[in-house]
Amino acid sequence: MTDPGRLFGQIILIILVAIIVIFVLVILFRSVRIIPQANAGVVERLGKYHKTLLPGLNLLVPFIDRVRPLIDMREQVVSFPPQPVITEDNLVVSIDTVVFFQVTDARAATYEIANYLGAVEQLTTTTRRNVVGSLNLEEALTSRDNINGQLRVVLDETTGKWGVRVGRVELKAIDPPLSIQDSMEKQMRAERDRRALILTAEGTKQSAILTAEGARQAAILSAEGDAKAQVLRAQGEAEAITTVFGAIHAGNPSADLLAYQYLQTLPKIAEGDSNKMWIIPSELTEALKGISAGFLGGAGGSARGTTPPAA
Predict the structure, then answer these.
(1) Strand bridging mode 164-175 / 92-103
(2) CA angle 119, 121, 122 (to 5 degrees)
(3) To the nearest 10°, the Cα dihedral for 272, 274, 277, 280?
(4) Beta-ladder partners of 173
(5) What residues contact 17, with CB distance under 8 A and at least 6 apart?
(6) Most buried of 72, 231, 240, 243, CB within 10 angstroms?
(7) pLDDT by residue for the chain (311 residues), tens digit each?
(8) Max Cα separation, the chain?
(9) CB-based burial of residue 232 (10 Å sphere; 0-12 exposed, 13-18 middle, 19+ buried)?
(10) What is the pTM of this model?
(11) DSSP characters over 125-164
(12) Cα–Cα dist 252/188, whole Å
């Protein structure tokens, strides 16, 4: 038979061994801490800052060291809800802001500020009101880069002691009141219509100038062509007259031949229904006199030849 006392002792021994094993496992578990990449952990020893755990395997003193919640060391993007801002010309605009920041010092982000994310949001809101409040609506709409730069400089200077670096600040949207938006749309439509009218007028002006220039060039070319044609015709007529005159003098025509040519020309002068009156050149009358003198001279000679001599 088994001794009850001995059995009880074995049970107690097994329980103690199990407790020791569990205790050792707990100690080992609490002594080893694995930090993921791009994270950091702040270790407090007996309630006081001891060190910052880097990514990888880290050893701690069980029950003495305590690790605070891990801090993300990556760059973070936070979009803050729209906030009303009064501009210099007393208009209320709604502005959405996006902030890009990164925790660079886990100890400062843990002990220098209670809630660095809320602090960044509040600081962004107040700084944005100060910057935009010094601008009118038109400047606020057209100076986003300037506003972003001023916000980033102020936020980076203030959050530096918190272990936070502000890399970029962007104004996601600037929404004026609806009445101002309607006025701006009307103004833009009027501006576009004005530019369209100016462009149309400029086009019409250029078209008229080009048309007038083309007509002027055409008239000049036409006049030059007519002048050259007249010169050529005059030269041709002069050469023809010179040729005819030379041929006449070379042929040495008689007065009877010239009178005969005048007689052939008379019907051509009288041609046409509209010729009610025409003028006979004096040379023609002289030629007719010569012809009549010739005919009369011939007739007189024959008469003289037939007249009997006086007794």
Answers:
(1) antiparallel
(2) 65
(3) -30
(4) 96
(5) none
(6) 72
(7) 556 777 777 888 889 889 998 988 888 888 888 999 999 999 999 889 999 999 998 988 888 889 999 999 999 999 888 888 888 888 888 888 899 999 999 999 999 998 988 898 888 888 888 888 888 887 887 888 888 888 888 888 888 899 999 988 888 888 777 766 677 677 778 888 888 889 888 888 998 999 898 888 888 988 888 888 888 888 888 887 788 767 766 766 666 666 666 666 666 666 655 555 555 555 556 655 655 555 555 444 444 444 444 43
(8) 231
(9) exposed
(10) 0.53
(11) HHHHHHHHHTS-HHHHHH-HHHHHHHHHHHHHHHHGGGTE
(12) 95
Q: What is the identity of the amino acid at 239?
A: E
Q: Among residues 173, 176, 170, which one has the least CA distance to residue 155?
A: 170
- The span from the first CA to the last CA of the chain, in angstroms, equals 231
DSSP states of 202-249 as a string?
HHHHHHHHHHHHHHHHHHHHHHHHHHHHHHHHHHHHHHHHHHHHHHHH
Q: How far is residue 310's CA from residue 28's CA, in Å, rounded to a whole number? A: 193
Q: CA 292 to CA 311: how far, in whole Å?
A: 33
For the chain, what's the residue count? 311
Task: Name the token pair of 241.
Answer: 């007259």
